[in-house]
Amino acid sequence: MANIDLITAVHTATQRDYVGRVTSVDKAAVAEVAIQYGEAYWDGDRTQGYGGYRYDGRWRPVAERMVQLYGLKAGSRVLDVGCGKGFLLYELTQVVPGLIVTGLDISAYAIANAKPEVRATLEVGDAKVLPYATGSFDFVYSINTLHNLYLDDLWSALGEIARVSKGGAGHITVEAYRTEREKMNLMYWQLTCRAFHTPREWEWLFQKAGYTGDYGYIYFE
Question: Please, what sign has the CA dihedral across residues 9, 198, 160, 112?
Fold first, then answer.
């Protein structure tokens, strides 16, 4: 296991008004809508989620780094747990033609509105019970998803990712905090987060759940 940062550049490219997130709207009411992961969350107003999650190429550098770090090549089988609209999977197929990609997300709306080129490889499902055979993927990753699970489901999802990946090859990126300021900013900004942990706590969970792949964090500084 190694701490490898894949997406800080993508994360920090967005400006966030943390206090405004909790003073401009009834955040509890907005969160109740967001956790349905429907149109409002993906393509509604910014106060309700992404504010319009559209393809813009931002994930291409992440795909290129993944390929370099994990030796992905034509014929490699890759799974994205929490794939959303499949933008990162699409970029991976462009960087490595012949890559075999699969994506799973709990949001039927995201899958229905996914990047057309990869939509047929995506399916609606739950991370806590992956519908794939043991060891069926050369590389499994999950970006900004697992912190949205309650502890029992998170535990199951970590075990499932370990189960379906060959030799534990994978990468997980989750939200975390190192300071009280980062903790408060995370609490102000999040709409769907269920697992609020420090890096040390995350790493304890990874080890106890049997996950042996790499990991990374995003922070709300």
Answer: negative
How far is it, in rounded angstroms, from Cα 216 to Cα 83? 17
pLDDT tens digits for 29-78?
Answer: 999 999 999 999 999 998 899 999 999 999 999 999 999 999 999 999 99
- Are 99 and 93 within 8 A, CB to CB? yes
Q: Which of 21, 15, 12, 6 is nearest to 190 (CA)?
A: 21
> What's the pLDDT band for 168 if we cut at 50, 70, 90?
confident
Q: Which domains occur in the chain, in start order?
A: 8-24+59-218 (3.40.50.150)
Residues 161 and 140 sit within 8 Å (Cβ to Cβ): yes
Q: Are strands 214-218 and 122-124 parallel, antiparallel or unpaired?
A: unpaired
At 28, is the pLDDT very low, low, confident or very high (cuts 50, 70, 90)?
very high
Percent helix, strand and coil across the chain, each rounded to 5?
A: 45, 15, 40
CA-wise closest residue to 66 among 33, 50, 38, 89 = 89
With contact defined as beta carbons under 8 Å apart, do 175 and 131 qualify? no
Model pTM?
0.96
Alpha-carbon gap, residue 173 to 66, rounded angstroms: 13
